[in-house]
Write a structure and sequence with these properties.
The protein is α+β, with helices and mostly antiparallel strands and 292 residues long. The chain has helices spanning 26-39, 55-65, 85-90, 151-157, 170-180, 201-205, 208-226, 230-249, 253-264, 266-277, 284-289, and strands at residues 2-4, 7-9, 14-20, 43-49, 70-74, 78-80, 97-108, 111-115, 118-123, 126-131, 146-150, 184-195. Helix 7 crosses helix 9 (253-264) and helix 7 crosses helix 10.
Length: 292
Amino acid sequence: VIEKSGKSLDLTIEVIIVDDGSTDESLSVLDGLMDKAASRHVSMQVLKNAQNKGFAPTVNKGVRVATGDIIILLNTDVLPREGFLAPLLTHFSNPEVFAVGCMDESREKGKTVLRGRGLGEWKRGFLEHRRGEVDKSDTLWVSGGSGAFRKSIWDSLGGLCTLYAPFYWEDIDLSYRAQKAGYKIIFENKSIVEHKHDSGSIKKASTEEQIKVTAYRNQFFFVWLNITDTTLLLSHIFWLPYHIGKALKNNDSPFLKGLGQAMLHLGKVLQYRSRYKMLFSISDKKILSRYG
């Protein structure tokens, strides 16, 4: 039950936790939480990956078994503030809304950075994304670590693309795909979560080079999967020699490795791309003009 303006909203709460091959005491802690959930009439289940599969496959696994209309995704390094749900849910009265993002009070190197609203622009053959100010409701993407999603649209879009595993770009990809299919996404600054950015699992489990290689690879994936505008694709091809030359000059081996890894998956990328094109009804330029 969520209290709002003196009225109560009756909700059925279903909690699904997917353990992505943890090696600490997570599962034993979750066993204790199961008993507490049952005593509070909350449906709770724990799904387990025998091995670490990464963000997209793990989230998809949880969403697949969910029975609710609205899915709230929260990463393990995110703490929701009291009352964060109601502002998210009000937007779903509009059937065209696919996702609503929270405002992250992100703890980074002893400072608090307000995140959650994303902007981006097409530059030198790639989509360059950045943090936007949190005083507006438009956003290029909704974070998969703290956001609400309509399950019926999630299913129709195919969920998170597992090519991006183990991490990065998968929520930008899904949000962009949703907008190209004609759906709306929103940023809600009244829904606040604390994001303990420095304690996330990515930096603990991966080296700095592995993170960079994956980020570069997935930057290529995003373009090859989603961009259908001819002039943007031509600019991507035109600028590629420049980026390769710059990487060689600066000894940026992660970029070259990322490109190599992306090329190895080209066949699969083209399969996904063909499937996604059938969903699209809005042009790339129209989407990008909103946030550039």
